């Protein structure tokens, strides 16, 4: 560490960082150290139970998730930020879910890819900090590396882990993205969130369509609709297909019923506003997209990474669960001979659901 860094008033610098973060659009920022050893036992238990499913990288990274200095050597302080994502004027989630002919896509995915938006904003924060103090060691993370984001945020006083395992903040609910800036600066840590405020509420557990929240604070990803529609690359297990309903990309049920989300705020970030009418669109319309349509419309979206084949797989399941109509049957029949074996399988299942096989 240079002499100039040794002479810094880190208490003042920490307050400046939080102010700069808010100027950049983050709702708030918090700071914590790198000792996450208390989380290792729970992480190992979750992995040993196989709850990570086909996400092999989870097991491959192992305890590195709880050891920030192994992920980025030299790290001694972590800055945690979050950014609300609810798009203003989006169609009512409950109404879309209740209409089986519509496609429900998780609210976080209706706009541009949050990875790029948050990473860019966190890098701006790092650049602002470097302009103030000179070069320093750092690395930006946004849901793309082995990082215990919720644990870090809780340790930084940003909120508490809900029974659905997502971070909840008293003033913002849970509809927000989390990001981190790892640094080699000895910043004073904020007090951790010591209490959780879920009380005896179990709404998130009971509402889960697939029973993925197997116990408070414990999710079996293999049953989670977000995993099944996004992370799972192969065939969706038969037992879960009817439970997906019209949820074709992710699921928000556990957040929708959370009492703390009455405090959720709409995002101020234009990049998270609804694109291509995805908040209120029929399954038939999305199933008709060509691969070129998918690539053009989903460019710059988090949805793009699942690819066209998986997109059609999900839509086929949604159509299998949709109210029977001539339009639904025609849409499925048009893809009965799709080049993809994965798509054909799910189309055949969907047609069988409507008594057409």
Task: Characterize the structure shown.
Belongs to the QueG family. A hairpin with a 2-residue loop joins strand 8 (213-215) and strand 9 (218-219). This protein has 357 residues and is α+β, with helices and mostly antiparallel strands. The strands form four sheets. A four-stranded antiparallel β-sheet has the order 1-2-7-4, sandwiched between helices. A two-stranded parallel sheet has the order 3-10. The protein has a two-stranded antiparallel ribbon with strand order 5-6. The model has no long low-confidence stretch (mean pLDDT 94). The protein has 17 helices and ten strands. The radius of gyration is 22 Å and the shape is elongated.
Termini separation comes to 70 Å
Average pLDDT confidence is 94
Biggest pleated sheet: 4 strands, antiparallel
Radius of gyration: 22 Å
- Proportion of β residues? 5-15%
What structural class should be given to the helix and strand makeup? Answer: alpha+beta
The largest sheet has its strands arranged as 1-2-7-4
| Count of individual helical segments | 17
Report the count of strand segments: 10
Low-confidence parts: none
Element-level helix/strand string:
HHEHHHEHEHEHEEEHEEHHEHHHHHH
- As a percent range, the share of helical residues equals 25-40%
- Cα shape: elongated
